[in-house]
């Protein structure tokens, strides 16, 4: 990225491959993006588009084998963490990069108290012990809005509701004041009112703590509400990237357009059917040599079959700064 | 937890009473009579007198109730007497073996140490071998270590203990002559040499049983670990930057031990009863051998009492397994 210098996280040409019995699956293909301090980057795409795998590849959370992060750089404040040893990576995970996962019902260990699980990273990364660790854990639970925090440290996960557990997960992720928080569909497993509460909480935490956040979701409504910038992923690559208003106001890629059409609107005709995108996302057994979306694309033409489009800026800004898209098709008519 | 334990203990009483009735009646139905041991030259009147003195001719419910009283009242009193030097059980009729005419419990106490040292240490050794193997096999699934472990475990529980026992005797006692093939119960451990002799004679039966126990338990451990290694909370622990040691030996192990602890606890009663065949093969003069001898000699009180003791142990360890379950898993609250 041209403006990678001021980024907290700068990912360049990341490639992740899964080796399976049926051959290789190219889950992440040359993904490049960056994250500025204090920014909330939304990552959208349907299941299997490579959103989660990309983020887990960053910090070595994928089991290897079968996963193999084959190429790329992940610069965290200028240092390539893909080159670090497993031990160095562990010192980054949980300390400088926090993770919140999708399902709070299963993401906490059922046999240890919540306090124990929050204090683990505090003890490991910050060297806090005994009372100090307990104080910090209490502070964290209060921060994420759990009442009666000190007492709740002794509770077990099953004594919390789903929303409360996700708050605990967020508290764990925030424990060591990370520079980057990666939230992998953190509200998907929650009902709508709880989801709203969690979004509100993240808003508030961002204001207070000012960390950069990557928010993975397939819910465009959530993205519209919280993101600064949005990255749309399809077939293991970024197909469109733009500031949130620009993306919703002026979507370019046929996939993004189709995604936006799938959002049901209040006040629509009752008998109008929900829009869907026909077909399945591809399983890439080789590095794509053609546009991965061509089979489902209404605008596909022969060039889409021949070459995989590269990302190109469409608003005159340098790549990654403004609005860019990986598509041969030009909505104005003439082919690019 | 305490009220739960008490409730379970109270519930165990009718269960045990019922089991005792079934055992008593079943054994009582068995063909054969204690009189068959008496030489044919003994005249019938004398024979009848002997049987009468044994109480064989009493109606079955009288014998059952008497046996119950002896088991639950007289024998505990005898135990108290022998520990504190009191005389509560004086003059009370104890459960007598038909074969040896001496109290059943005295014989059991005599035989217990052999079973406990041989079979008990085999069980402990088996568990101690099984847990690390199960944990590491699961952590490195499909590695050569795991494959080898699977292979040996397969042998361990598919080949019967009497066969492995005989093979070991052939190799180590007959060919190599490292270990004696017969267990010498009269050996007293007094010095280093007799200790070594004891270790040598224990080696083979312990190996056979430890192999079998380790095979079963390591499989349970492995599958339980595998189930938990794929859980989301493991990913969370890794995302927190925990070392693999903490991830596996704290987060995964604690969850994986829950079902395995139950298997281990429920296996303990089998120490006493289940090793009957191994005791026969190696001539270990323990409880298993005692039971076999009693069955062959139609010594009904001995068979009834031994079988019932096994039943009590099974009920007891079931309860212990459940309590351990509750301690290990906070989601289970019994109150």
Automatic annotation (TrEMBL), chain A:
Residues 12-260 form the ABC transporter domain. CDD domains: ABC_NikE_OppD_transporters. One of its GO terms (biological process) is peptide transport. GO terms for cellular component: plasma membrane. Pfam families: ABC_tran, oligo_HPY. Keywords: ATP-binding, Cell membrane, Membrane, Nucleotide-binding, Transport. It is a peripheral membrane protein. SUPFAM superfamilies: P-loop containing nucleoside triphosphate hydrolases (SSF52540). It is found in: Cell inner membrane. PROSITE patterns: ABC_TRANSPORTER_1, ABC_TRANSPORTER_2. SMART domains: AAA. GO terms for molecular function: ATP binding; ATP hydrolysis activity. Belongs to the ABC transporter superfamily. This is ABC transporter ATP-binding protein. The lineage of its organism: Bacteria, Pseudomonadati, Pseudomonadota, Alphaproteobacteria, Rhodobacterales.
Automatic annotation (TrEMBL), chain B:
InterPro entries: BPD_transp_1_N, MetI-like, MetI-like_sf. It is found in: Cell membrane. Keywords: Cell membrane, Membrane, Transmembrane, Transmembrane helix, Transport. One of its GO terms (biological process) is transmembrane transport. Residues 112-321 form the ABC transmembrane type-1 domain. Gene3D superfamilies: MetI-like (1.10.3720.10). It is a multi-pass membrane protein. The chain crosses the membrane at residues 118-139, 151-174, 194-215, 257-277, 308-328. PROSITE patterns: ABC_TM1. It holds the Pfam family BPD_transp_1_N. CDD domains: TM_PBP2. One of its GO terms (cellular component) is plasma membrane. Belongs to the binding-protein-dependent transport system permease family. This is ABC transporter permease. It comes from Aliigemmobacter aestuarii. The lineage of its organism: Bacteria, Pseudomonadati, Pseudomonadota, Alphaproteobacteria, Rhodobacterales.
